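Usage

Read records sequentially. Each one opens with the input sequence:
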Amino acid sequence: MPQVTPLSDKAKPARLPWFTLVACALAVGVWFVPGSFDALAYDRTKILGGQLWRVITGHWVHFTASHLAWNLVVLIPSGVWLEKRDRCAARATLLISPLAISIALLAFAPSLGIYAGISGVASGVLVALTVHGLRTEPRARWLWLAVLALFAAKVAVESLRNHPLNPELTAQAIQSVPLAHLVGAVVGAGAVLLRRHSNPPL
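and closes with the structure output:
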């Protein structure tokens, strides 16, 4: 006679990483709204003139479709993976890094007039995922260290070259802003390191 497995003994379904998916959907949706870039992009002059919403919304608008696509290539997988492993760290990074990046740009990049894109936030999520992996997966330590080293090398090279490593974005005259990536990385690392306990993988 077949046995019926109690519901409590069955594997729980993985929770949907909705926070990451909503953040990415917003970036895609905003792209299709006419005039959204002019109304929402980080614009130093307009922010200092009182349009404070731009310190947040500037990260969700993009210069070109490929600019958006390449950022999502990083943010979607790393964000989904991180949110399934440590929801609090993922959501803290997504919420805090936009404001932290904009404040840093206002304070330390006075010559930067216009900034747009979610790459700094994506950098934060990627680094948060890497730090989480280093803390929870000692057997895969070298893999996570390699990811962290590649990220650091990318930021260093872009700092020296003053344009993205991606030739497609360089051809579109999109300037790299390493400060945004560094601040995002600090927020992401802090979101993991400041937590005593991380949520187990689901």
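Summary fields computed downstream for this record:
- The longest strand covers residues 42-43.
- The chain has a mean pLDDT of 89.
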